[in-house]
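pasting for ref
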Amino acid sequence: MRTTVIPGIEARSIPGFVSIDLIQRQLEDEVEFVTFMWFDSEQAIVSLVGAEVAASHVPPQAREVLRRFDERSQHYVVLDRRQQQSARSEPNL
């Protein structure tokens, strides 16, 4: 994800693609990864995945190593985002 998939998305320089967050958690027998992709318009999403905006963007190289993944993505509209002064650019892991 960090060396191929995300850089591949970034290399496309999609107008309106703001950022991507990658998080993980340990489950009993696997590690779960979730990405949060931030866009400033629906057109930016269309530029990434095409007209079917609910389709998950999982490149072939990611499909090869993932045991399972969601075929459909979830979209949300940010109603309020409050940046805190003490927020760091990198979270403590």
